[in-house]
Amino acid sequence: MNRFLILAGIVCLLAGLGWQWLLRFPFGRLPGDVHIVTDGLDFYFPIVTGILVSAVVSVLLWILKH
Q: Which residues cross the membrane (predicted)?
């Protein structure tokens, strides 16, 4: 538990320090993300972004586990 809290703190610190750099990354605007705009409706479903984030988190957790 202590190791997880320390790791979570380091991740939050790095995300905070690199926030401006992270905003330039095209997360949320990747090809395959669904964005439908019609009269009175603005629907956005970031499916590819979700899959990419899930894969990265899974790999990181697998690396930390082994």
A: 44-64
| pLDDT value of position 46 | 87
What distance in Å separates the CA atoms of residue 4 and residue 25, rounded to the nearest whole number? 26
- H helices, E strands: number in the chain: 3, 2
> Whats the size of the chain, residue-wise?
66
11-41 in b/e burial notation, b at 16+ Cβ within 10 A?
eeeeeeeeeeeeeeeeeeeeeebeeeeeeee
Instruction: Provide mean pLDDT across the span 46-59.
Output: 90
- Domain ranges in the chain are 2-65
pTM of the model: 0.56
